[in-house]
Specification:
With 109 residues, the chain is mainly alpha-helical. Helix content is 55%, strand content 0%.
């Protein structure tokens, strides 16, 4: 017999329509997962089934500015990433782009 650790949440077709609309309006996957009470992987599954094009991962213009501000305030890249729902690499890329840190790959060696 299989036991279920947590209750599964099934979305209706109308809820998936709303989820897709929220995603297309700019809401992040982490926010969608929290709003609809589902796992992030499930959000991606619904979007994939609806053939919704994925957004380029990373930070938008305003988010990059916020990442720079937080970095200057002493907040770690990992903490910024957690706050913004992206990984540390996305934060690092934004900081390299802003000239706050050097890109190791461009040092010519």
């Amino acid at each position: 017999m299989r036991t279920v650790e947590t209750a599964q949440t099934f979305l209706t077709a109308a809820e998936v329509d709303t989820l897709v609309g929220d995603y297309l309006a700019g809401m992040g996957v982490k926010q969608l997962a929290e709003r609809y009470g589902i796992h992030r992987a499930t959000v991606f599954s619904h979007l994939r089934r609806r053939k919704v094009p994925s957004r380029r991962p990373g930070l938008g213009f305003d988010e990059k500015a916020e990442a720079v501000r937080l970095t200057r305030a002493g907040v770690s890249m990992r903490a910024i990433g957690r706050r913004m729902g992206v990984n540390r690499k996305a934060v690092r890329a934004a900081l390299v782009e802003a000239g706050l840190i050097m890109d190791d790959a461009s040092d010519g060696s």
